[in-house]
Amino acid sequence: MSHAQHRKSSLPILFVAMAAAVVLAAATSGCAPTMSNPAEYAERPISAEAGLEYFSKTGGGDPYATGMAYPVFLALMDIFPDELGKDFPTFEEKFGFYPPPEAKGDPRAVPVGFHVTTDPNSSVPWLVGNCTICHSERLRLPGGDVMVLGMGNKRVRPHEYQNALIRIGLAQNLSDDAVLGAATRHAREQHLIWPELMRGPIVRATLNGLRAYARQRRAELPMWKDAVPGRMATIESFALAVNRFQKEQIKLAPNVGWAKVPDIRSFPFRETFSYDGSGFGSPQALVLEADFLLGARPEWYISHPHIATSMYLFLKGFTRKLPYPGQIDADLAVHGKTAFEKTCAHCHGHYVDHDGEMRVSYKEQVIPKEIVGTDPARVDAVTPSFVSVSNSIPLTRGYTAVRNTGGYVPPVLLDVWARGVLGHAGQWPSIAAMAQPEAERPKTFIVDTEGDYDLTRIGVHYEASPERPLHKGEYFYDGGKPGYHVTGHTFLSDLPAEERRAVMEYLKTI
Ligand code: HEC
Ligand code: HEC
Asked: Which of 85-89, 390-394, 396-400 has the highest mean pLDDT?
């Protein structure tokens, strides 16, 4: 099977179809090995602990399809500093990745969500991604910064990153010689293994892969101009990936269905996948689809079946302790619990504190978009054509399927105090904003991703404001744009002011 065919069979089940380090390179060309099998992914007993490692450290694997030779990546940063940043701190700033706290500012440390493995075929260090590129968030709290595993990254810009890679793939000055020279210099400076016989073929295969990827996707460059940090066009990305490889083309909806990266804290209580419950079927296969996000090939999972199963066990048992770090008015919270039970619990579940551990009684349901009243673009993105084409893909048939549910699933609200921005599109910067009557909610606001978490309004650091020049770390949110509307969900804002305050106080305790 040629390399192109490998890709062909893998892409249709990409969940979001954003290849992180995108490069479709085999280590060498011709009849050299097409699979790289580093030690971290070797067969081991299935467990949630192993799943945690895949999720947060090593990623799901398949380095040749999901990653890039580390010296080549360093070379690309050198040659395209405007696209990628000249070093990891600027790279992180550009795309909303976080520096690893344990690196204490070392500019050579790879960002959270990235992992350097070793390709056993060439001994070359290889950069791959993991789920925490998106599913891990830094909170700036009074006691200091904390990295919260599983929380949606609220400033990550996956479409920007993808566009940068596309532009590099199309660049006139992307030359094998220049990359080879810079990669070799980096390898020497950092004492990286970079064997003389392998260098040329690795660089050539990587850049050819990148060029092919860029040619295929150049039409996507203008499509994500309305992307806001922390949000993705999930359904559309999937659809485009499918379209490239199928005769029958998926017809997209007129508006992009923006989705913020969710907190995975709800996963153990869920039966389906996604904000709208559109993905259903074998839960293990659904997790696996999320993993194909990084571009892994089906052959990889056929030879490494333990990975998706362990990942599923980890997600299914996911829990964390993240107590609200500010003052809580206990009496007010008790009052709020009563109101919550009356007004909110039939959708969001009941929460019982059992010796400091929250027990949840929750039954998943879809609330029709007409009733919840929030922006319909994300659910409408699942067009009839999307449903029929996705469900006819042979590889996933009988395992997973999609449907248009017509509404959104009420999220489980554990740790909701830390989740701002809220709503499926991150359309509310804080719980205080969602508690305001629709007409009074901030429609345009500026989020400071470097700012302290707002424990009073319970949300991100933001300023309700029209567009103005932005400072470093800020972005502008325009709720006037389709997909980003701030309306709907008036359940909280319809309560009398006193009860609103009480419910908000209660939300800090769950
Ligand atoms: C590029 C960012 C990105 C990466 C990387 C990523 N995800 Fe996600 N994930 C998302 C977005 C965005 C959604 C929301 C999808 C939707 O409903 O439209 C999501 C949804 C999910 C959900 C559903 C949560 C729920 O309760 O409905 C799970 C579970 C999940 N991802 C797991 C994973 C796993 C496992 C990995 C690693 C293999 C991963 N994700 C990698 C962006 C990402
Ligand atoms: C009829 C069902 C229903 C009721 C009642 C309801 N909600 Fe919701 N809630 C939803 C749905 C559906 C969403 C997701 C909407 C979206 O993302 O577009 C949601 C979203 C939320 C969110 C955002 C969560 C997140 O992770 O971003 C919060 C907070 C919330 N609701 C609080 C409340 C409170 C407090 C009450 C009671 C005052 C309440 N809800 C009543 C259905 C409901």
From this structure: 85-89
pLDDT greater than 50 at residue 486: yes
CA 220 to mean position of chain CA atoms: 19
Pocket test for ligand 2, best of 263, 430, 489 (most atoms within 8 A of CB): 489
Check pocket membership of 186 for ligand 2, CB cut-off 6 A. Answer: no
The residue type at 145: D
Cβ distance 296 to 61 under 8 Å? yes
CB of 364 within 8 A of CB of 270? yes
Per-residue pLDDT band for 20 (boundaries 50, 70, 90) equals very low
Q: How remote is the CA of residue 291 from the centroid of ligand 2, in Å?
A: 28
pLDDT band for position 322 (50/70/90)?
Answer: very high
Q: Does the pLDDT at position 504 exceed 50?
A: yes
- 491 Cβ inside 6 Å of ligand 2: yes
With a CB cutoff of 8 Å and minimum separation 6, the contacts of 319 are 265, 268
Give me ligand 2 centre to Cα 445, in Å: 21
Choose the residue to mutate in 148, 274, 322, 344 for probing ligand 2, maximizing ligand atoms within 8 Å of C-beta. 344
* For residue 27, pLDDT beyond 80: no
Q: What is the pLDDT of residue 213?
A: 87
**Rg of the chain (C-alpha set):** 23
- Is the CB–ligand 2 distance for residue 231 below 6 Å? no
Q: Whose CA is nearest to atom 11 of ligand 2?
A: 410
Query: With a 6 A CB cut-off, is 55 part of the ligand 1 pocket?
Result: yes
Rounded Cα distance between 352 and 388, Å, is 42
